[in-house]
Specification:
Blueprint (H helix, E strand, L loop, with lengths): L6 H14 L7 H18 L3 H21 L2
């Protein structure tokens, strides 16, 4: 039996654990590390079907906001 782990799933768990901590307990370097982890997570999920789905939804929302703001 071979156990494999998806790096994106692992990073999602790490992000979830880090963001559950109280804001007052974080230092600047800790916040920078969290931002770096989130950026790597974004790069990992971008080429997947899930990432494309998120991009499509965000694009539709942005288009709707743009169209509702024009006269």
């Amino acid at each position: 039996m071979v156990l494999t782990i998806n790096v994106a799933v692992l990073l999602a768990v790490v992000i979830w654990v880090r963001l559950r901590r109280r804001t007052q307990a974080r230092s600047r370097s800790d916040e920078r590390l969290t931002v770096a982890i989130v950026l790597v997570f974004g790069v990992l999920i971008a080429p997947t079907a899930f990432g494309r789905g998120i991009l499509d939804v965000v694009g539709q929302v942005a288009q709707g906001v743009t169209e509702s703001g024009s006269p």
